[in-house]
């Protein structure tokens, strides 16, 4: 049974270290305030500023948006039009399903299988925006974000994303030069994050959505990118709060699926959900420990009982036990305890599965 305890402890240690390792970035995200890379409001001229813009505009003047086809629903027309009207000198590209697939097939054929294989349309809508930014550069804007002022000041940063509250970054408005290392890394890593996480919203968030991007961003920051590789952060106030902010939020959201609302809600509450996940993992871990402790106590009772039998048999039934029968009992006992070890290991393997989907 000592071996059983050892196996249990080793497996649990592995599970725990795997867990900590895989959620370390998530945990560190919780305390990341992005202040080091924030775009300070003092850097941004007011919308009608007389200040002569000195900084070169490095991001190309292209606006990218996505929708399944050319027919934009009424709720987002105004938002879409506000961006087009403010930027007559920008190229405007609407990435429909058909156009997106064609683009991936032509330019990034290695990704086509993953792209087609995504279970939820929103995953395609998420991933295509990273590809077009990495490829053409420009500014991506979700259909539910309207433009409140010209994007020009933001074109001075090689890459920017926007901060979300309480933590992390979003993928609903982003800008980049072509071939920016952050977006190259993002498209490179999409395939390895294409996993299922039991619940659709977690799958979407963590395979292609804001949580995925936040994790990539957090890890990318640790590589200490050079000035041109830096990803600057548009803070909440400059995003859509005030008259000088860049965007206005319109009702509805551009996610295509039926469960869009739910996904949207989950997206906003992922911190809460992460905490719930941890609590659940703790409960599962505790239950397994309890189960194992019970198994151990049960098996020691069995062993106690079995160990009595040979004496009983040998004294009352068999006047002189053969060597074979004496050898057999320990083997039998070993079998029993080995089987329990296997069961214990089986139980912990199940826990491993549960854990790994939980973080
Ligand atoms: C900037 O000027 C335009 C017209 O010239 C005006 O409509 C807009 O409200 C002004 N914006 C701010 C923030 O003052
Ligand atoms: C776009 O899709 C909607 C249904 O989702 C359909 O009503 C509309 O006709 C489509 N537009 C085009 C141009 O195919």
From TrEMBL:
Predominant place of localization: membrane
Signal peptide coordinates: none
One matching Pfam family: Gly_transf_sug
Gene Ontology annotations for the cellular component aspect, listed alphabetically: membrane
Assigned keywords, A-Z: Membrane, Transferase, Transmembrane, Transmembrane helix
Molecular-function annotations in GO: mannosyltransferase activity
Subcellular location: Membrane
Membrane topology recorded in Swiss-Prot or TrEMBL: Multi-pass membrane protein
GO biological process: mannosyl-inositol phosphorylceramide biosynthetic process
TM ranges: 6-31, 270-293
Similarity comment text for this entry: Belongs to the glycosyltransferase 32 family.
Name recorded for this polypeptide: MIPC synthase subunit
Organism in which the protein naturally occurs: Aspergillus heteromorphus CBS 117.55
